[in-house]
Design a protein that fits this description.
The chain is mostly helical. It contains eight helices and no strands.
């Protein structure tokens, strides 16, 4: 478990610091730097495990079904029935890259790792939800400069979605549904 916390502290310090001090375009940050900083160490860690975690395993249909359903729910919760917004290629790329990177990290790897250590424990989903919510604090505070009430609401929404997306991955054994659900949320927020 110690290695998981080291990795998470690495993400908080490196990614949080990068978002705080780095002022590149969001496209560059989300498409290039985030996958590099988040996924390279994660894949090396997975390779070092005695039994590697399989993130794209079984139940593709179930995973996709849950992902699309939950993604639509997130979208409706945040945007209602409105399809108005900026749907340019940059928004779609950022929504997809962020969903893939963060869901492979949290729903795919972290939830799978925790589930392997303690199968069926509800606390695993709470841990993933807290990790998802806390990792966003530097961006909300330093980049978007949200106030306390906005941060509180966003924190609960991020934590709940992190736990739900982790549940989809554990239920189906496939992170694809978590990525699709997150895409729905990202499109609602970014679009």
């Amino acid at each position: 478990m110690r290695r998981l916390w080291y990795y998470y502290i690495y993400l908080l310090v490196v990614w949080g610091g990068f978002r705080f001090w780095g002022r590149l375009s969001e496209v560059v940050e989300e498409l290039w730097f985030k996958p590099l900083l988040w996924l390279v160490p994660l894949f090396w860690w997975n390779l070092a495990l005695k039994e590697q975690l399989v993130m794209f395993g079984r139940k593709w249909g179930s995973s996709i079904g849950w992902g699309v359903g939950v993604g639509v729910f997130y979208y409706l919760l945040i945007r209602g029935w409105s399809l108005q917004g900026d749907w340019g290629s940059n928004v779609l790329l950022i929504a997809a890259a962020t969903a893939v990177t963060e869901e492979i990290t949290f729903s795919g790897f972290v939830a799978g790792y925790l589930e392997r250590r303690r199968r069926g424990w509800v606390g695993n989903f709470l841990i993933v939800g807290l990790m998802v919510a806390i990792i966003r604090l530097p961006v909300w505070l330093a980049v978007y400069k949200l106030g306390l009430s906005e941060v509180t609401g966003a924190w609960f929404l991020a934590g709940a979605s992190g736990a739900i997306n982790a549940w989809i991955r554990v239920k189906t054994g496939n992170v694809t549904g978590s990525i699709l659900a997150r895409m729905g949320m990202n499109l609602a927020v970014l679009g």
